Amino acid sequence: MNPSYKEKIVSAFWFIVTLVLAAIVFFPYYWMFVSSVETESMFSWPPHLVPSGFTLESYWTIFEERAIGRWFINTVIVAGSTSLFSTIIAINAAYALSRFKTKTTSVFTVLILFSQLLPAALIVVPLFVIFQQLGLYNSLFGLAIADTAFILPVAIWLLKGFFDQIPVEIEQQAMIDGCTQLGAFYRVVLPLALPGLVVVVAMSFISGWDEFFLARTLIASQDNWVLSVGLTSFRGEYTLDWSQMMAAAVIFTIPALIFFLFVQRYLVAGLSAGAVKG
Amino acid sequence: MKTLVLSATAAALLLGSVSAHAQGVTLNVPSWMWEEGQVGEWFKRNTAEFETASGNTVSGTQIPSADFEKVVVTQIAGGAVPDLMTAFTSMLPPMISAGTLAPLDQCIADGGFGDRLLKSVDFAKVDGVTYGVPLTMSPWSVVVNRKLLAEAGIEEMPRTVEELYAASLAVKEKTGAYGYAFPNDMAAPLHVYINSMQWVLGFGSDWSQPDGTITANDPRNIEAIGWVKRFLDEGLAPVGLGAIQARDLFVDGKVAIMFEGPWLMTQIRGQKPEMMADIDFEVVPTPTHAAVTGGAFFVIPAKAANPEQACELLTAYMGEEPQRRWLEDLLQIPGTTAEPSAEFLKENAWVGNMATIAAQYPGGIGYAPPGYLIDAGEFRQMVVDALSEIYSGRASVEDGLNALQSRLENWSATL
User: What residues make up the domain containing A136?
Assistant: First the structure.
């Protein structure tokens, strides 16, 4: 067989495999959308893979009857703040752990990760008490702080890996050329660690976007609900409005999807760069 | 001079407190019911009437039912104590045991609704002290789609398990729909357990006895669960459905019989009112016909900031008119006796059946295994784990229940 012909067959095979895998991954999202616009009952056989009718009524209804717009804005605020807080703190902490090594640095670095070993359910009551006493209960700002606390250890470790990869000599060169250490950090190190920064921004944004447990516990009033909590309100004790819930899920998913589409190039580069560290 | 200043200060404080009382307080009332369709409307309407009459305001916090217990317990543990709250029956024993609920006897006496309370109030009594007031109490019996049964050539409602089996077979063969459906989504253990309760109680047994004796592998349980498995194995009941999906399937006209409560009637009337004429409430076709009573209670936490006003709100909810509305608007039994209108009874003849069934075939209140009220959650999970093995065919009914017996006995010994 002609080698180039064989290569084409192999690549076509892998293309089909990839396509099938992509279809499997994408199907739940497709089904979610179909269920949100379908006019017939979802209990039908064979199932309607293509909607038998099309209506946006569920979308209008959830905007009319629920504070979905408000929850959406709240979610953007919480996810954006979580991303901002965790990135700023992680940059400084990771740089310090990477560059200013002392006898306690490695112990401290491991201790940071130890906080990840505690499940949220274990610390939720003390967290609740602290937040209530600080006046952060039922506050979006408070929720962003809590989300930040949970994502921060991973963000610090991730960024430390990136900073470790950047040779100190580059900073020294910048300082010889007249930069202060802070200047070298912001003008030289940070741009070189950009893929890592994007990973942290994306990861913390998504973490704040879809976090449920803390939001459920630390937010009381419906006005302050985020979308992940609002979604659960479509499920009653006895009933569930499937089409409305699916419409809300579509609205919940789209921004995160768009965000990922924008950053995925950096995300893959960033994650793989971290992977070959050593 | 010092005395004068102190007196003036005390007078000012007193005036301030009087003024604050006159302005009313804001009561924190969490519930999973605030946004639940007609139930939510009942709460909002009666709360608005209370606010107008009392000058107090009510902050009704909606917490979805699936998370309600976790969230509200965390709030109470963290010091954010509600003034009045709804509670599932399963929440009462551990909350009473932990001392988190206030005695309500004085409130009930002051409110003057004690003589109208359902007997179910006894469930919330410990050592003669009442810690909860029934909000709603309804029996799980059978909701039947007579039209679908008739299409399968069945005119009489099945009264025995054998008849239920035959009816299911006929409905499946002649209409393509299901004769019987029940929750068997193992990710939602409570409803799987409730269904199993209906069957084992229906065969005259239970998973345990009030003295704590484990009876998981009682021959009657083996027979009962054997029947449930048969419906699944022979494709006569849908596999993997949660309680909500099963109800939706029924409302969609694709199921003839479900072991359910009147809340399914509420759902049907809200979503498919034209179907109501074909629906009836019937006796469970098991040997004992036992109907488990499910429901919810009103409770006031021990550390509530405004217990007096919370009691006033509770009294308002338990008023005769709101209670009658609960029955007529929601088609469910309220926490007190209520006198429905003759017109309502004429339009909803099945309500009479429901009351008769609840009285004739009492199957106990709530979903806790006898003797294990406090640790019910763990007990239920172990039962459902065993049922998962059995329903999926990884264990026979006998082997699965024998293993469950050992596991529960070992666990019970550690308590």
Answer: 67-226+252-275
Are B379 and B208 contacting, i.e. CB atoms less than 8 angstroms apart?
yes
- Whether residue B53 lies inside any domain: the answer is yes
Q: Quick one: average pLDDT of B341-363?
A: 84
Residue B64 has its nearest CB partner, among A129, A220, A235, at A235
Based on the fold, state whether residues B115 and B32 are members of the same structural domain: yes
Tokens of B41: 């409307």
pLDDT at site B218 = 96
ipTM of model: 0.72
CATH number, domain of B114, equals 3.40.190.10
Closest partner CB to A233 (pick from B59, B62, B74): B62
Q: What is the pLDDT of residues B85-120, one digit of tens each?
A: 999 988 999 999 999 999 999 999 999 999 999 888
**B241 and B251 both lie in a single domain:** yes
Which range marks the domain in which residue B264 is found? 140-293+363-413
Residue of A nearest to B295 (CA): A237
Q: Is residue B389 part of a domain?
A: yes
**What DSSP state is assigned to residue B157?**
P
pLDDT of B11 > 50? The answer is no
Please enumerate residues of A whose Cβ is less than 8 A from a Cβ of B.
41-43, 124-125, 128-129, 132, 137, 216-217, 220-222, 232-233, 235-240, 242
Q: Does B65 sit within 8 Å of A125, measured CB to CB? A: no
Cα separation, A203 vs B345, in Å, equals 59
Q: In a mutagenesis test of the B interface, which of A238, A243, A244 is the best target, namely the one with the most B β-carbons within 10 Å?
A: A238
Which tens digit of pLDDT belongs to each residue from A111-124?
A: 888 777 877 778 88
User: Do B66 and B179 lie in a common domain?
Assistant: no
Q: How many CB pairs under 8 A join A and B?
A: 71
pLDDT score, position A273: 57
Residues on chain B bordering chain A, Cβ-to-Cβ distance under 8 angstroms: 32-33, 35-37, 59, 61-62, 64-67, 70-71, 74-75, 77-80, 243-244, 247-249, 252, 254, 263-264, 266-267
Asked if residue B254 and residue B170 are part of one domain, the reply reads yes
User: Is the domain of B210 the same as that of B149?
Assistant: yes
Instruction: Give the helix, strand, coil percentages of chain B, each rounded to 5.
Output: 55, 15, 30
The reported pLDDT for the residue numbered A102 is 82
Examine the pLDDT at B262 and tell me if it is beyond 50.
Answer: yes
Distance, in Å, from the CA atom of B211 to the CA atom of B216, rounded to the nearest integer, reads 14
Q: Residue A128 and residue B252: Cβ atoms within 8 Å?
A: no
Angle value at C-alpha B50, between B345 and B85, nearest 5 degrees: 85
Structure confidence at residue B2 (pLDDT): 45
Q: Work out the number of other CB atoms within 10 angstroms of the CB of residue A88.
A: 11
How many domains, in total, are found in chain A? 1
Cβ count within 10 A of residue A53: 9
Domains identified in chain B, total number: 2
